[in-house]
Amino acid sequence: MDHADDAYRSELERLRTEIDAIDLKVVDLLAKRQEQVKQVMALKQAHQLPVYHPAREEDLLYARRRQARDAGVDPDYIEELYRIILRQSRVAQSGHMARTGIRTGAKVLIVGGYGEMGRYFEKWFAGAGYEVRLMGRNDWQDAGALCNGIDLAIVTVPIAATDDIIRRIAPHLPPSAVLTDLTSIKKTPVDAMLAAHQGPVLGLHPLFGPTTSTLDKQIIVATPGRDPGSCQWVIDQLSAWGAVIVTSDPQEHDEVMAIVQSLRHFATFAFGRFLARKNIPLARTLEFSSPIYRLELGMVGRLFAQDPSLYAEIIFASPERRTLLKEYIGMLNDSIDMLDTGDKSAFIAEFEKISQWFGPFGEQAMRESSFLIDKLIERF
Q1: Is the pLDDT of residue 98 over 60?
Q2: Which residues pair with 135 in a beta bridge?
Q3: What is the C-alpha to C-alpha distance for residues 363 and 375, in angstroms, rounded to an integer?
């Protein structure tokens, strides 16, 4: 018995030693891969290419999944591993490219620069070698000096004040300066910039907040206004930092964002409001919860952990958004008869009709939500 035990321990130790040797090789190979990535960084920097290359990444993942199947390894496991490797590579490149200025030395004025988003973009532009000037509400007496020689003026103030600030700052800008804003609506600000400034105009909407640590794969919507050629360096700079630029006209942007932001945030607000009005014992519900409930409740809690004035600006940004929300509430009221009568057949018929409308996205949503649920289970 002792001899068998010794043989088991010896074999176990041998296998563990082999695993350790393989792990050393894996880390060594990752280090060599990172060296190759540095060479890619240098080429991208020299040619001002964006960090993120979606087609390249998808081709790589497809090839690694196929290789995994041939080797008898779970393809999902290999894909997850490589997504981590690719993200690390992008973050490293973004950090390097953050110090890369497309127009190094150009002068950038951030109007509303002492706010959170203003400070956020100050860090990125200053880190890339731009001369950054900040302008706050008490600096209007120095507007002429602050605007002197400016190459890019960014307006990042509350939505309600944006149009007025644009009209006030535009007369001080050089004719060649690019004027842009970071507002979550685009039609009115772009119209205001076009009317007030005769030079290049570009609307921007970053779909992230100032706590974002990296611009890797962060989406920024660009709505061209005037002279896109003169504005291109701004878009190239954001791309060089890792952002994904989605181009749209102002009207389409506002229509889409009414759904993506205003309706989604209001529906989340309404759910949280109902829970609070009913004084639901949240901690107790979590003890009974499935991962999907925890995920959904997490999104509700996330909303109420942030600045209410920010969400008020987004939700009530325009009459069109408020009209859309009233239509949403009216649709909910349409469901009361179904509940009063307990009409399950009507519910099922409506459910199936909506399911057909979602089409193939339903399967995609199942895959993506299952991934998130698995990650949540790992965490909790």
Answers
A1: no
A2: 111
A3: 19
pLDDT score at 41 = 75
> Which amino acid makes up residue 86?
L
Amino acid at 239: S
State the pLDDT at residue 34.
Answer: 86
H or E stretch covering 191:
helix 187-196
- The residue among 184, 151, 135 whose CA lies nearest residue 315 is 184
Grade residue 133 by pLDDT with cuts at 50, 70 and 90: very high
- Integer-rounded Cα radius of gyration of the chain: 26
pLDDT per residue over 270-309, tens digit each? 999 999 999 999 989 988 888 888 889 999 999 999 989 9
Q: Where are the alpha helices (DSSP H) in 250-307?
A: 250-257, 264-277, 282-287, 291-304
DSSP string, 103-139: TTT-EEEEETTTSHHHHHHHHHHHHTT-EEEEE-TT-
pLDDT in tens, 172-198: 999 999 999 999 999 999 999 999 999
CA gap 212, 275 in Å, rounded: 29
Q: What is the arithmetic mean of pLDDT over 301-329?
A: 92
Neighbour-count burial for 138-158, b at 16+ CB within 10 Å, e otherwise: eeeeebeebbeebbbbbbbbe
Q: What is the pLDDT of residues 195-206, one digit of tens each?
A: 999 999 999 999
**CA-based end-to-end distance of the chain:** 42
Q: How far apart are CA 68 and CA 252, in angstroms?
A: 42
Distance between CA atoms of 355 and 129, rounded to whole angstroms?
A: 51
Question: 210: Cβ–Cβ under 8 A, 6 or more apart, which residues?
Answer: 116, 117, 119, 120
Could you give the CA distance from residue 205 to residue 156 in angstroms, rounded to a whole number? 10
